[in-house]
Amino acid sequence: MRTTVVGSWPSDARYAAELARYHRGQPDNGDAEKLLTEVATVAIAQQRTCGLDEITGGETSADSFILHYPRLLSGIVPSENTAAWDGRGAFRITAPVCAPVGLGIAASFVRERSIYPDLQKVTIPGPPEITTMLEPREAARAAWPTMTELIRAEIRTLIEIGARDIQLDVPQIAMGLADGGWDTGLAVETAISARERGRAIAHFDHFSPRCSV
Fold it and tell me: What is the average pLDDT across 135-146?
């Protein structure tokens, strides 16, 4: 039986304070890269020690899985809701939304593969996750097609640099289906739209569609 992880691997507790400073933008680039490499190295080693057949980089550069995405997007500004998300604040859309340097997942994959050259699996969130901190919700929902294109672009880059198991991780859809807040047809359409036809085949694994290439 093949064993793997859905995506995130808890960062070692000894790095909690340094990672919090990183997500607040405090370390310089050199210190940040050293920190992220060290945290990913530990996460990869822990997964291998557990005997998993297929590991990921652990999403160790992410802030609570998705709370760092506004920093990678242009066309948004902080909203008046500065207390949201434990003081990280919420954001509102003021212009066409772009990701000038990508969503950061390919960059993390390059770092993590330099640690473990056999790494092939990577996870990527869906449109609902990337727009979680955007307000109002109607505007965030309207941005999903744009998010889909950003996700597709990131997937193309991941394929080009060697990722062979790309898992679309969409817990908001899964939870919505469980509590009745999501229509099944819309859930499937939203998940499948994130992968390009002809470039990957999506498999559904506990409502986390995977693209195997």
Answer: 94
Joined tokens for residue 20: 């919090």
Return all residues near 202 (Cβ < 8 A) that are at least 6 apart. 168, 191, 192, 195, 209, 210, 211
- Asked, for residue 75, whether it belongs to a domain, the answer is yes
pTM for the predicted model, two decimal places: 0.84
CATH of the domain at 129: 3.20.20.210
Q: Domain range for residue 163?
A: 13-212
β-partners of residue 166 are 122, 211
pLDDT tens, position by position, 4-38: 887 788 899 999 999 988 888 876 666 889 999 99
Tokens read off for 137: 């919700």
In contact, 127 and 190? CB cutoff 8 Å: yes
Distance CA 131, CA 207 (A): 19
